[in-house]
Amino acid sequence: MSVHPSPKATGSPAARSRGAHREHRVTVRTLAARKRRGEPISMLTAYDFCFARIFDQAGIDVLLVGDSVANVVQGEETTLPVTLDDIVYHTRAVSRAARRSLVVADMPFGSYHVSPEDAVRSALRLVKEGGAHAVKLEGGAAMAETIRRVTAAEIPVMAHIGLTPQSLHRMGGLRVQGRSAAARERLLRDARAVEEAGAFALVLEAMPPEAAARVTAEVGIPTIGIGAGALCDGQVLVMHDLLGLSEWTPSFVKQYADLGARAARAARAFAEEVRERKFPDERHTYA
Ligand code: KIV
User: Fold this and answer.
1) Can you give the pTM of this predicted structure?
2) Where are the alpha helices (DSSP H) in the chain?
3) Is residue 4 part of a domain?
C-alpha cells in the first residue's frame, strides 16, 4: 500500500521545520554571534501570553520563564515552592506568544537536583509540553554533569552562577557573591566548568562588576547579567521590576514604567464610576 503524504506534510523535513521555526527566530547561534560581534543581548522574564507578546514584538531577544514566578505572580517569599507543573504551564503561555524571541524555561528547585536522569526528564517536559527552546538551571561546577546530560538530550542549557536564589538556605540568605579574591576565583572556575559542560549562555547574578567583567572576558559563551554591572554580554530584568509592578525593587533595578500606579488609578476610577452609576453609560452597552 502506498502512503500518500498529506498536503501539509510535503517538503523535506528541513523545509517543514523551517516553517515551524521561523527564519528570524533568535537561537542559541544568534546569541553566540552576538557575543563574537560585541552586540548586547536583552532578556526579560515573562510568565503569560499577554506580556510575552508585548516583549516579543518589542524586540526582546530572550524571554525567560523564571522561577521568580513564585515571588512576583504566586506571592511566595522564595522561589523554592514553585513546581515543574507551574513552569510548564507558564512556559506554554509564553511560547504561544513568542514568534521571534528565544524562550528559556527555568528548571525549578528539586526538578534537577536528585540525578542527571531526573534533570533530563524535567527538561524534556519543559520542551515537549511547554514549548521551551532551552532551559536554565542554577549552579556551577557541581552542575557540570547535569548540563552535559541535558545538552546531550538536545536541549540547550543556560547556566546561572553568583547569587543563585535556589541556594538561599545554603548561602545563609540572598547575598552578593564574588566579593573576595577567593570567591572571584570560584566564580571563574564555575563559569569555565559550565562552558566546558556545554552551556550556551550564563546568567551572572549579584556580583561586583569587576568579577562579572572578568568572567565575561574569559569565557566564550555569552554572559547575561543582573546586578552584575555593565560589562556582561547582555542584561536581564524581572518584568515586574522593569514595569513598576513590584512592591520593592533592588537598587540595581531601573524602573522603565510605572504600570502599578497606572493600574491602581484605573481601578479606582472604575470603582468610583460603578458607585456613581456612571458606568456603563450608553456608549458602553450592547444595543
Ligand atoms: O527567575 C528569574 O527571574 C531569574 C532571573 C533573575 C535571572 O532567574
Assistant:
1) 0.92
2) 13-20, 28-37, 49-57, 69-72, 84-97, 116-128, 144-152, 168-171, 181-197, 209-218, 239-242, 259-275
3) no
Q: Which three cell numbers stand for residue 46?
A: 515573562
Both 95 and 226 in one domain: the answer is yes
Average pLDDT value over all residues in the chain: 93
| Closest atom of ligand 1 relative to the 79 alpha carbon | 1
- Give the pLDDT confidence score for residue 21 in this predicted structure: 53
pLDDT tens digits for range 74-97: 999 999 999 999 999 999 999 999
What residue's CA is closest to ligand 1, atom 6? 238
| Mean pLDDT, rounded, for 226-233 | 97
Per the structure block, which three cell numbers stand in for 225? 547579567
52 in a domain, yes or no?
Answer: yes
**Residue 151 sits in the same domain as residue 281:** no
Our answer on whether the CB atom of 44 is closer than 6 Å to any ligand 1 atom is no
238 C-alpha to ligand 1 centroid (Å): 7
For the chain, what is the domain count?
2
Shared domain for 283 and 226, answered yes or no, is no
Q: Do 16 and 33 sit in the same domain of this protein? A: yes
pLDDT of 65 over the 50 cut:
yes
Instruction: Supply the range of the domain harboring residue 273.
Output: 259-287
